[in-house]
Amino acid sequence: MLMISHIHWYERLWPLGSNGTIVQSNVVNNHTYRAGTGSSLVHLINGQAGNIESHSFTGANEPVLNITAVLDQEHFGFSKLTVVNATAAKWEFIRGVDGQVGDELWMIK
Q: Taking a C-beta distance cutoff of 8 angstroms, is the pair 87, 108 a contact?
């Protein structure tokens, strides 16, 4: 698997196990994952704060990997984590241009 260490995009991956495969049992739906099970990790990558280098893009012949749930290579923005209680947290990607939620993920235990 190719890993890029410095990107300017927002990406949310499906819950991944130690072998790099998606742990389907931890996917409740597109916007809710089970966390804290010990079988997978939640990966949230936000390089969208913005800078003079602009965004990073996948190559024309480089498909988005099946481990990627959401990929935004267009908007700048920031992330907001809200811990609701001991068993639920909400992650939001907020677009800088209009303050709208570009992505949302609930993590439940």
A: yes
Question: With bands split at pLDDT 50, 70 and 90, how would you rate the model's confidence at 53?
Answer: low
Q: How far apart are CA 69 and CA 14, in angstroms?
A: 6
Q: How far apart are CA 14 and CA 30, in angstroms?
A: 9
pTM: 0.80
Q: What angle do CA 69, 75, 78 make, to 5 degrees?
A: 80
| Token code pair at residue 11 | 């990406």
Nearest to 46 by CA among 2, 96, 86: 96
Please report the DSSP string for the chain in residue order: ----SS--SEEEEPPB-TTS-B-GGGEEETTEEE-SSSS-B--EEE--S--TT------TT-PPPTTEEEEESS--EEEEEEEEETTEEEEEEEETTT--EEEEEEEE-
